[in-house]
Amino acid sequence: MTDQNRTGRVVDLGQPWRGIGPFLFAAYHHDDYPRGDGKMAPAADLSGRPLGGDFGNPAGWNMYHGNEVPGFPAHPHRGFETITIVREGIIDHADSTGASARYGPGDVQWVTAGRGVSHSEMFPLLREDAGNPFEIYQVWLNLPARDKMADPEFTMQWNEDVPVLNEGEPGTQATVRVIAGAFRDVKPLAPPSHSWASDPAADVAVWVLDLDPHASIELPATNRPDTRRLLYLHGDGARLDIDGATVESGQGYEQTMQSPLTIRAGERPVTGLLLQGAEIGEPVVAHGPFVMNSASEIDQAFADYRRTQFGVWPWSTSAPVHPPEAARFALYGDGRVEQPEQPAVTG
Description:
By secondary structure, the protein is mainly β. It has two domains: 1-17 and 163-282, Jelly Rolls (Sandwich), CATH 2.60.120.10; 23-42 and 57-161, Jelly Rolls. Helices cover 4% and strands 40% of the residues.
């Protein structure tokens, strides 16, 4: 904690970013990937990299758990939800329910793991004539005990459908992408049916804010006094003024009063992720990819995964990627297909 004032306090975020309320944590990935090699892998020498666990590479990009294509090959989850928000780059999804997808800038993938799902998230490098910049948020949202063993659910929010609020004049404009929780009269798309965000009393919000230099915007008050709210700030040299406090890139602002909040950008553009929600009010016991209410439930999750793998993995590899020419799409476990109009890569 570095500051204190009327409406909240400036906090250090850590890595991954600390959670707030029902949110377990948020991870921010920003990789300046090189051009692709024609097989959607980096056209670069991978020797010397600790493949299978390549994080924090000083060259400015990571393979994560990928050995050829960057990303996260098949891994299990139980008891919570993942929300993946793409700002730049492409993600190929596959899971043990038979669902798969390719999604890109502006798209949001929301997965309710429930009683258990295995999924992979790979980052194919489609451009061979230039670099492949990549920027995403990955957010873990807890589930209440009543929904921890719900059927897994995979949903997509396409860029074209995500509600957006623009305020201010060109050059000093503030933009808010409304992923969960209404922003004034801008209502979000429906969350998954078993999400904590599906309960209006939970006061869950997920907003992505982009402010031009010197832009300002007033955030609405929370809907209940015990809602917790944290604004995560990043951007090269980014700085916000919030109620007299200066918040810099890599810091967050935890609001402690139930009131509207005016934020104002400094000399450079600012990007922020805002998470808010009421506490679930239940014990949280987490171990690796499982988040439950007791140690015995964690033991059961490991036993169930060893026995069932949380379904049949229908893919020939643990790190499947779609053909380079594939446009954005979502194939659901019930066979339903969605395909937005715009392609995955432009320009």
